[in-house]
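Hi support team,

I'm opening this ticket because the web form for multi-chain structure prediction keeps timing out on my end. I have pasted the exact lines I submitted so you can reproduce it. The total is 828 residues across two entries, so I didn't expect it to be a heavy job. Is there a limit I'm missing, or should I split the entries? Thanks in advance, R.K.
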Amino acid sequence: MLDTTSAAQHTGATPLLQTVALTKRYGTFLANDKIDLDIRPQEIHALLGENGAGKSTLVKTIYGLIQPSEGEIRWQGRTIVLSGPADARAHGIGMVFQHFSLFDNLTVAENVALGLDGKEAFKDISARLEQVSRTYGLPLDPKREVWQLSVGERQRIEIVRALMQNPQFLILDEPTAVLMPQEADQLFIVLDRLKAEGRAILYISHKLEEVKRLCDTATILRGGRKVETCNPKAETAASLARMMVGGEIKEVKAAASRQITVPRLLVNDLSLAPDDPHGVRLEHISFELRGGEILGIAGVAGNGQDELFAALSGERLAKDPGTIVIDGHAAGHLSITRRRRLGAAFIPEERLGHGTAPRMRLSENALLTGHAIGDMVFHGFVNTAATLKTVDRTTETFDVRKAKRDPEAASLSGGNLQKFIVGREILRGPVVLIVNQPTWGVDAGAAAVIRQSLLDLAAGGAAVLVTSQDLDELAEITDRIAVMFHGRLSVPVPTAEASRETLGLLMGGSSIEAPEAPHATRA
Amino acid sequence: MGLIEAIILSVLAASTPLLLAATGELVTERSGVLNLGVEGMMIVGAACGFGGAWLSGSIIVGALCGIVAGILMSLIFALMALGLAVNQVATGLALTILGIGLSGLIGAGFVGERIAPAPHLHIPGLSDLPLAGRVLFGEDGFVYLSIALVVCVWWFLYRTRTGLILRACGDNHTSAHALGYPVLRIRLYAVMFGGACAGLAGAYLPLAYTPFFIPGMTAGRGWIALALTVFASWRPARLVVGAYLFGAVTILQLHAQGAGIGIPSQFMSSLPYLATIIVLVLLSRARTGGSTAPAALGTVFVPDR
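Hello R.K., no limit was hit. The queue was backed up. Here is the completed structure from your submission:
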């Protein structure tokens, strides 16, 4: 307490918002443990921590969605009690949610109106919406329905909605997780402008470079407690990560010598029409992936990565069996189970609902992908002991943290569930692993575990295909990189030779035929 | 009175309970709750409505009894589906079964009794105009009420902030909660409104359609009302068209039998459902994205602690 006041005097500004020993208890579990936070005007304040460190609980409390068990919130030096988000908004606290709080079948203007507190006529809201979106360079058409919009546009709605309340203090929960690099840059311009206008921002992100570049102060949470408040510009990404994890993050290391062996996965001129009108058509995709090799597919989301995953995993079948060859067997016409029997394993992007059935236990989820091979099914009956053993082995090898031995998948945090899914597939010993966005929304510690496991798998002789939007990740673990754009795949180039600029251009679709690579093989 | 006029009058009478019940269900479903118990709420509304009218001698008291009975039934549903987050489909089906049994019990004492049916409007001059006079100015009060109700519901859903919030809850309850709207309370009111409408629709049958009560007299109209909501793709204006169309089919079926036309009556009775399926197919083909139905329809919502 004493040190916070002295810090305030030190900088000569009264904190706009303070939390004093803020505590949130769920049963015996402390989600937030006596958290003190000071946020001053004209400050972009980062809130860092692993998944489950208590960041979301803290910001939800500040936004009035959760009532604290103990402690208080002070606004401009005065203690306030927030009965709900409307109350927080009335004080001047705004929030942009990580999982958008939008309504797909309502128009942009209706969505904005729902975030405001009612006294304004609908026509005035539409007019003001256009004015605010113009002022901040966030163009929006008020009459369109949200389902028609891209992810970036959806986030614009959230931000404009928050700005229309004219907040003094804005909370952003992982705003750049879903944005293209250019969109993120645009967002930073808006944030700098808000800061210049005298507002304060609380910024949650897993991207430490971004935090270093943007934020003035960083508060780090670990296990529900505040560990440190520091100046991120004076820290390195590694030192920030250390504080978050509470120890060294293991450096991801490739094995010294990896044997590149026989082709494990061949894709020959794969073309596939999308099955829904918004899908992307796959156009003449060809590549070869050998054992011991990791191939990365970069690209902005929605350029056919999901469609390619569906075609490779057998969720959608190709007409010609020869378009996909798994370990020497033509597999284009085979079902998912039969592809698994050939030694393939698949990890989709969406953890809940695609990678796992959220309301089923982990052991049941282990069975869902593990039934094809191994001892989980015996003459049509489930061998419960074997499924539980898979859960235990995965838990142990991949450090999956969970409350019970066999909880529901939905009860795990994102990082832990992802470790479980990756572990479940890797422990089956696949010869081909196809993984889509392996560390999306996962904290640094878990991401390192996952990346290392992919490297180890390749070192053991398997072929790994990684689709990711995170270029740093691809640079770290892949041997070759290709870029996907509008359903086409560029010719893979060795990762060491692929410059960020080239990849960026390819991702923007400037020239899909990589100039330095021969493209005679393309059909 | 010519045959055409007689047919139009009977179509209006047959359509009104469908329109009333479907209007209520539309509001309920727009808030994201699927209450399959319309038939049950209607039949209890019919029994209580008739009982009220018979005991008091007043059609209005009867109608109010029907409304209250419908609301009480919907509260049972709300307790289960909203309060205890039980599966809505199962709860709704159970409510219908409960309603059919309960109405038999309540109505047992009234079977065989008769009341004076709800009076028809009579405006001297206007109501006596040929053809259109009886149709436009000579209906019972429920017919006008049902049309006024749809107009009010349309205005409420698309022109008021509360209506927007209700639609928002039906589209995405997680977002609505995150913005600070009391999802469960809004849904409770929507369910109660649905119950009131279904109760009134049920009461219409013994109060105006046939002036006596027999067990099971709703005869599947609750299910037609549910189909009608889908047929109308959750839009009030289409609901009016659909209600009169479905009402006309039931009347045509009687006249077709009377005239000795050889279409099996079972086929005619199945037409509303068939039409609903065709409309659903056409809608899903016509729309390129988004969702026609309220996106959160039938899903359970449990707010964070």
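A quick check on our side: Chain A touches chain B at residues 26, 60, 64-66, 84-86, 89, 97, 99-106, 110, 113-115, 118, 122, 145, 147-148, 277-278 (CB under 8 Å). Let us know if the file doesn't open in your viewer.
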